[in-house]
Structures are given as C-alpha cells and as structure tokens.
C-alpha cells in the first residue's frame, strides 16, 4: 500500500502535513532520522504510520507520564488497541503481568528513559523485534540530560543493547548545538536531517511591561476576563500557581484550576483530562504542564513569569492554536521578578560547596561509590529537601568520572570534586547566556518572530498577518467579544458568530 493510502485508511486524514511524508519515507527505509517539525506539526504521525507498515514494534521514549497517557489514549481512541505505556503509573501487578506476556503483541510501546535503565525491562525488550526506536521531544536529551534526567544521556547505550534499531528523534525546538547533542547521545552516526520551519504563524506574540507585581496581578485578571479561553498561564513556582488560581477564582473567573508537580499523579492526570475535555477553561501551572499535550483549541498562553531560555518559551507558547486557530502568547514582565529566572538556574544544579560535601560522603574507604541507605538519603534530603535530583546528578557524574579514571584515592577525590564543580559552573554559565538571549528577545524592538526564528538559525521568509507587538497586533481579536472596527479587515458579524460567542464556542478565525 502506498503511503497516501495508508494515511487515509489508518487516520482518515486526506493529506500529509509539510515534512511528514519525507520523514516517514526515510524512517521506512531504515535510516536514522533527526526531524524538526513545529509544535502541533504532526510529529506523532511520523512514528504512528510507520508502525502500520513495519512488522515489529515501535518503542517510543517519552519524557513525561502525562504525555504518555495522552498519546496512548489518542492511539486507543483512533482504534489502535495494541498500545502500552511502561511507566510508574502501572500497578505492581500490572507490571508483573506485563513481564510475563509477549510484548511483541504491542505495536507501540511507550517508555521513559528511566525505565530503560531497569534491567528486567531491557531484557524484556531484547526478546522482541523492535523495528523503530523513537525519541519524542528529543531536545530533552540536551535540555534535561545534562541536569536532572541523566538517563537521557544513556539512551545510545540502551539502543545498542536493543540491537541498534533504526532511530527517529523528533522535536520542535532544537538549536544546532541541541541537534549535535541529540546525534551524539543517541549514537546516530549518519542520520538524515529533516529541518522544517519551526514558525507558528497563527500565534501572535506580545510582551507587556508592568511596573510592579500588584499591577501584574491586576493585568492577569483583566486578561483572564477578556481573552477567549481555553488558556494556559505559566508561573515559575508551585506556590504562585495556587496563589494566582485563588486570586482569579475569588475575582469571578470560573472553570480555572492549578497544576504543578507537587500534586499527586492521579490529580494531575485528572486535571489534564478535564482541561482536554473543556471542563476546565484556564489552567495556572508550572512548566510541568503541557509538554506534547494535544489539545487543539487553546487560544492563549500567558507567561506570568518568563522561563529561562527561548527553547522553553517556544515549547510553551506552542501549546496554543494547535488546531490552526488564531491565538496569542503574552509575556508579562515586571522588574520585581527580574531576578527569578537567575534564581531558578542556580537551583537546577547542586551548589558547588554542597556537592563537595556530598561527594566526600558518597565515596568509601576503597574509593568506590557507597550506595546510600534510605536513612542517609532522608537525612541528606532534609538538609536541602528539593535536592533528590541533585543527588542523582552527583551520582551520575561520579560514576562517569570513575568509569574513565578508575577508583578514587584521596588525592584523586579532590580532582574529581573539582572536575564536577567545573562542570556545574560551566553548565550554569551556559544557562545564564541562554537567559541573556531570552532577556534580549523580550526587550527587542525588532520583529519578535524574526528574532525567535533566528535563534534557531531560521530566516523568516513570509509576512505574518498577526505577528507581534512590534509589528502591530490587535489584542481585541483574541477576546471573548467581537470587535468590528472600520479600519480592520475583520470578518462580518453573522448571527452564527454572535451565538457562538455567547456560548464561548469556537469560531474559525
Ligand atoms: P506535535 O508535532 O506537536 O507532536 P501531534 O503529533 O500531536 O503534534 O499532532 C497535532 C495534531 O495534528 C493531532 O491532532 C494530529 O491528529 C493532527 N495531524 C497530524 N497529522 C495530520 C495530517 N496529516 N492531517 C491532519 N491532521 C493531522
Ligand atoms: Mg508531540
């Protein structure tokens, strides 16, 4: 069957979106592929469709549990039943059962990088025919692999254990350096590149300066009242999501919820589902929400706090307008919050002095790593409670160092500590320079779209009608009410439109 027919039969879609067919052809010719398609550009199809044409299974490495659940559900609702997600959401007995069944019976197997470090799952996967190995949201290799998700850096080794299946890396946000990291850590010796435009012309961009945080709060309320939902509002801390959720609720905003990593897994899946099903209109969240989530009708994304790099910003605003509707991304800036991103960067990796203390404690008299008892772990966590990921980071770095230098002596322990501290410093300063680039973008007087794309080495070749505040953007287009002004080309108001707006439903602008 040719690909166009396969597309129609399996998905009901009449044609491929830009880039999809070429990527799928290369995947089916068993080449390694690194593919960039914009947010909402249809990356999932690039492994789903090959799945139907290949005999064996497709293993998809996915960064988040919520994302896996979303993708499993989508596949199931499209009629594909041979799907499974191997993650911590499975109960003990489900896991035990899966270990006894033949995984070959699953066409699509979703798994996290961490589960791929567990011997029994790797052995299980070794027993089946894997025809395609996919790393979805592959920028995570570079963005998280060096910090708190170090198992991303071990995917190349895992692939070897699985017999080097052809590999497809998918992302919507990769600079040249990130692409290099993906190639290196996934051990792709001669991959084919499909670099498509990352632009999202249906998302207008706006940066608003406010004088202080009180004004920011009030502006947020104005926007949440006026803008046509659904919307996502990003904050840099869990407490702020809750605080502003309360403020909005108390001020008449209904169908609003908050979401952050401190909620239980069940609560998170529930809120995500409610948002997907339009039972919740506005979600106040940290960056823990939204990656890869396929909700087509989000109309705005507000950043109450800015992220620390352009990649994250593009990922987060990309959750708007996935169905093609006009939507808007608004970043609120206040001088009072200027230090926050810097603070976030400093917290992402261990403090060098703490690192030195921990390293000394981790290495025993024989120069080997002493794995921690639960009590030791708890004691250390109590000293700096958020630091489980820091501890994992240090263990990873220590292991790496010992792999190349052997067991440690008292003097090499010093050198090892210094080497790790240098790594922390250089990673932190790299992040600071990424923050500088985002800060520069927020203050530019040039076209924001042009500058954003330039960051990814892409040139803006078209004129976008509703582009950015620097090119001119009318926020009224995105409000619940219809505004018809004589000097715009806005469509005529029809009674259907009026009714749709009264009931806050979609219109196709
Ligand atoms: P992303 O690139 O962000 O991963 P998804 O794979 O989640 O995007 O796809 C976004 C949406 O586009 C989904 O609803 C998907 O069904 C739809 N889609 C993908 N390919 C096509 C196509 N060729 N024609 C129509 N819709 C498509
Ligand atoms: Mg996706």
Q: Report the bound ligands by name, code or SMILES.
A: adenosine-5'-diphosphate, magnesium ion
Which geometry do the CA atoms define? globular
- Overall tally of domains: 3
Name of the CATH first level of the largest domain: Alpha Beta
Strand content: 5-15%
* CATH fold node name of the largest domain: Rossmann fold
Mean pLDDT: 89
What is the compact description of this entry?
By secondary structure, the chain is of the alpha/beta class.
List keywords for this structure.
509 residues; alpha/beta; Rossmann fold; 3 domains; 7-stranded parallel beta sheet; 6-stranded parallel beta sheet; 13 strands; globular; disordered C terminus; binds adenosine-5'-diphosphate; binds magnesium ion
Topology (SSEs and partners):
Elements: H1 3-11, H2 20-28, E1 33-36, H3 45-53, E2 57-61, H4 65-77, E3 83-86, H5 92-100, E4 108-111, H6 119-126, E5 130-135, H7 139-143, H8 155-161, E6 167-171, H9 176-185, E7 192-195, E8 203-210, H10 213-226, E9 231-234, H11 238-250, E10 256-259, H12 265-276, E11 282-285, E12 300-303, H13 310-317, E13 327-334, H14 340-348, H15 352-362, H16 374-383, H17 388-405, H18 410-443, H19 448-455, H20 495-502
Parallel strand pairs: 1-6, 1-7, 2-4, 2-5, 3-4, 5-6, 8-13, 9-11, 9-12, 10-11, 12-13
